[in-house]
Here is the input.
Amino acid sequence: MQLRRLVVGAAVMGLAMSAGIAYASIPDSGGTIHGCVKTATATNGTHGIKVIDTATTSTCPTGFNNLNWPSKGQLLYQSNASFTGPYTSGETVGTFNGVPAGLMCLTGTASAFTSTPLETLTLIFTSAAGPSMSFHLFANEANSHKALVEEGTQCATVPAGTYSYRGFGLGDFTTSNADDLGSLSVQVFAD
Here is the structure.
């Protein structure tokens, strides 16, 4: 009786371990999820898709084609911060809490003005460890609030943490006040 319990226990343990190994193979060691999509005409606009473990099933069954996709690059975090001026003298404009480690991408909008005509306005939002965002615009008139042009989405690989952004105007002529608006958008992707 005791030997029977030992054999049954070992069998159950073996099944549990093999299930854990099979589960760990999706995605594969390279981060790819392997699947198969049914080649038959779609029914009601849907196709049959099966996820396979290539460690145990190397090919798709008859009537299916390979369909693989990366598991990396998944969106892990997204948040926005909107703010009003002033934000050209080192003011904190947004804090993003609970940011996970990964590829952090930053986009934004901002406006500013200058009291001197024919100047290039430059505004930068920076964080100690995250990507920075720059905005530029040539202002041909004075004392007119202008929407600045974003330099483009900026990305950097970051550790998990809290990221606070501060605004700086370059030169004495880039200014903002309560009539100016801005926003920052953060997305973090698995890398």
In short: The first helix runs from residue 2 to 24.
